[in-house]
Amino acid sequence: MASHIVGYPRMGPKRELKFALESFWDGKSSAEDLEKVATDLRASIWKQMADAGIKYIPSNTFSYYDQVLDTTAMLGAVPERYSWTGGEIGFSTYFSMARGNATVPAMEMTKWFDTNYHFIVPELGPNTKFSYSSHKAVNEYKEAKALGVDTVPVLIGPVSYLLLSKPAKGVEKSFALLSLLSSILPVYKEVIAELKAAGATWIQFDEPTLVLDLDSHQLAAFSAAYTELESALSGLNVLVETYFADIPAESYKTLTSLNSVTAYGFDLIRGAKTLDLVKSAGFPSGKYLFAGVVDGRNIWADDLAASLTTLESLEAIVGKDKLVVSTSCSLMHTAVDLVNETKLDSEIKSWLAFAAQKVVEVNALAKALAGQKDEAYFGANAAAQASRRSSPRVTNEEVQKAAAALRGSDHRRATNVSSRLDAQQKKLNLPVLPTTTIGSFPQTVELRRVRREYKAKKISEEEYVSAIKEEISKVVKIQEELDIDVLVHGEPERNDMVEYFGEQLSGFAFTANGWVQSYGSRCVKPPIIYGDVSRPNPMTVFWSKMAQSMTSRPMKGMLTGPVTILNWSFVRNDQPRLRLSFLLRLTFSHWLRFETCYQIALAIKKEVEDLEAGGIQVIQIDEAALREGLPLRKAEHAFYLDWAVHSFRITNCGVQDTTQIHTHMCYSNFNDIIHSIINMDADVITIENSRSDEKLLSVFREGVKYGAGIGPGVYDIHSPRIPSTEEIADRINKMLAVLDTNILWVNPDCGLKTRKYTEVKPALTNMVSATKLIRTQLASAK
Predict the structure, then answer these.
(1) Is 707 assigned a ligand-binding role in the annotation?
(2) N or C: fewer beta carbons within 10 Å in the chain?
(3) Where along this sequence does the record place binding of Zn(2+) (predicted)?
(4) pTM of the complete model
């Protein structure tokens, strides 16, 4: 009965690690207190998997911030600006790299493939010195062993680590990161030697970049790396784990030819075509296949009967003793434990499985494969699958017809962006380099208490509205005092930019404790899209009109766009498969989702039109996650971008020229999709940019003509660090070197929800001061 879990959530069922981290960062608790919480969490996770019967239990998948940053610490690859002098890397250096500090900015943070998890990007160059500087992987293996649990230590593989890195500041962009392979492998050898000495018999290397479109040089690096490690790995069983997409045929050929590797892990949910590859290309004799048949990225209960059929077909190829039942990827991308959902609708709850339940599913499949099928468990699962297929609450034919009618049309505003910007400027009369923020303002403890008490019916609606109105008034006053040009209402009524909208749309369900780590201590609670989506009533108009009545300055109506709502939710996986030939070539996750996205777009379109009718002249439709949803394989990019961009245009195609449409997008790695962004036809786009401004600016240096307004973020809101006026002015000047003055906006990187007012006020003060300084310089230069 061979079962395996790729990885497990770190935050804890009730976000214990989040609160411990934030207490430590605030100086309210000690390092020992934080370590105690972490130790208890790890022990409970290992015990849970052992009790469930999992054979191959992972260790070193826990992290205080991020597993890639852990690897950077292991390799001692600390950028010079953190003044690390060697030795074991402690919390001070580690968290400075992740979050920055009073004097030094944080390292860049970007999305982990196409998930909503963020990792800290390594900064490497020809002068980077590597040394074994964090013994975390070995220490956690020993920690588990002391508890009686023999684990599989997990490391980010050496080639993926380098391919996910970027050249350090001052290093040429063309620097060959893979040239550092021979420099980091000695550290890997030291780690492997210590793990062997500690008693490890298996080791797992996560090499997710193997699912990308790699060239021959990159594939050769895998061969070189694992050939070089072969003697060090002698005596160990070596699992190379891939996930998030199909593995290409050439990568499969490279991987299965590695002599030092004894087992291969494949995602058979998002990489369904890999199954065909295993069957058609053959599987190496005597090697293990870790079959990822239980979805690690969604919360739907596994169709156990279907998975068992898949496993039985693989068993005929691989052999009974060499097939291991696994998750498609780490379970860190799903919620922790369904047991904590005491108020969730009982019918919908029966359709779900969180991380704890997926562990049980994996082992149940392994037992069934070994001839010990739990008929009662499989029967209950079959009944839940049938209930979901037949439930009338899932289907709305009117919504389906409206969404289907959108496919053949091209929804665009009637005039071009240049004409619209002229009309908007006449109405809004904004200064050069207009200033704004992205939407949210700090969510105080008191504000959260008010929302919580209103939801629990401990205060009346009148009391709730009064409290929110007071908060909006405070935020408006602060912005007017700071002299910001286009205001926001601060979103005090919103718990989350997706959950807030989902709660007011049909077809969504919500959890109480379905938290998923986004980055560091930041957790989100994704809504569950279980059926067809529509908008019964206006969602934001009341609050936006209230806010606009408090000021004569433009007040942005704040909406979350359809692609972001889709990508930041747990999405249904039960729509009928379309029979169009070009769709059949696409990854499962992308050829089902666009129908739901069109439904959400129609709902947001109604909201946009109601805001405009209510007198809101500037409407921001955030598509923070548009880039994140881009498929990992280039052959699938065009189809995704087509329906994603179309979905955005649907939301605002009917507004007047004088209504200014903004959007916000996270992360500036847009070089490959800049033409799709232009095709969105927004009037103004603000972009998260401060940790990676050169990536964005290089797009415009290379001659891309962009006529709409653009606001590359001028300071990092993911760090408590307050930038100086001079620093922000320098950023603005760099942007003006490649962007026209009349299209540049000045704004923070992202929303301010996670920051404190003691950080926000001085940072925004410096942002406005820097803008006025540049305006003066521009005026004197004329």
Answers:
(1) no
(2) C
(3) 664, 666, 675, 688, 750
(4) 0.91
Flag whether 489 is in a domain: yes
Residue 590 assigned to a binding site: no
Residue 205 CB contacts under 8 Å (≥ 6 apart), including other chains: 154, 155, 156, 157, 158, 238, 239, 240, 241
Residue type, 236: L
HEC sequence for 408-421 = CCCCCCCCCHHHHH
* Domain stops at, among 261, 291, 318: 261
Structure tokens at 166: 């970027």
How many beta carbons lie within 10 A of that of residue 176, not counting itself? Answer: 12
Assess if residue 453 is contained within a domain: yes
Q: How confident is the model at residue 387 (pLDDT cuts 50, 70, 90)?
A: very high
542-558 pLDDT per residue, tens: 999 999 999 999 999 99
Question: According to the model, what pLDDT value does residue 577 have?
Answer: 41
Residue-range definition of the domain harbouring residue 618 = 417-781
59-94 per-position pLDDT tens digit: 999 999 999 999 999 999 999 999 999 999 999 999
The answer to the question of whether 439 is labelled as a binding residue is yes
118 and 716 in contact (C-beta within 8 Å)? no
**% of the chain beyond a pLDDT of 70:** 96
In a 3-state reduction of DSSP, which class is residue 289? strand
Query: What's the token pair of residue 752?
Result: 């301010």
Residue 153, token pair as written in the block = 């230590």
E-strand spans in 6-90?
Answer: 57-59
Q: How far is CA 126 from each of CA 178, 183, 185, 512, rounded to the nearest angstrom?
A: 11, 10, 15, 48
Instruction: Tell me the C-alpha distance between 383 and 105, whole Å.
Output: 53
CA gap 45, 136 in Å, rounded:
17
The answer to whether 379 is annotated as binding is no
Report, as residue numbers or ranges, the catalytic residues: 718
What pLDDT sits at residue 668? Answer: 56
- Residue 465 belongs to domain with CATH number: 3.20.20.210
Give the mean model confidence (pLDDT) for residues 112-129: 95
Under the banding of pLDDT at 50, 70 and 90, the label for residue 494 is: very high
Single-letter code of the amino acid located at 726? E
Domain stops at, among 261, 288, 321: 261
Does 491 appear as a known binding residue? yes
User: Residue 609, by phi and psi: left (phi above 0), alpha (psi -120 to 50) or beta?
Assistant: alpha
- Tens digits of per-residue pLDDT, 226-267? 999 999 999 999 999 999 999 999 999 999 999 999 999 999
E strand or H helix at 508: strand 506-509
Residue 68: closest CA among 671, 693, 519? 519
| First-to-final CA distance of the chain | 77
Average pLDDT value for the chain: 93
Give the helix ranges, DSSP H, for 456-502. Answer: 461-482, 499-502
Q: What average pLDDT does range 519-544 have in this prediction?
A: 96
688 is known to lie in a ligand binding site: yes
The answer on pLDDT for 694 being more than 80 is no
Residue 198 lies in a domain: yes
Whole-number pLDDT of residue 582: 37
Q: Are 28 and 351 in contact (CB under 8 A)?
A: no
Q: Are 745 and 433 in contact (CB under 8 A)?
A: yes
Task: Provide the token pair at 691.
Answer: 């940790």
- Give me the number of domains the chain comprises: 2
| 3-state SS, residue 359 | helix
Cα gap 44→684, rounded to integer Å: 48
Q: How many Å separate Cα 125 from the centre of its chain?
A: 27
CA distance linking residue 124 with residue 183, whole number of Å: 11
The beta strand positions in 121-221, using DSSP E, are 123-124, 151-156, 166-167, 202-206
Say whether 622 counts as a known binding-site residue.
Answer: yes
Give the tens place of pLDDT for each residue, 257-311: 999 999 999 999 998 889 999 988 889 999 999 999 999 999 999 999 999 999 9
H or E element, residue 29: none
How far apart, in whole angstroms, are the C-alpha atoms of residue 134 and residue 744? 43
CA–CA dist 778, 782 (Å, integer): 7
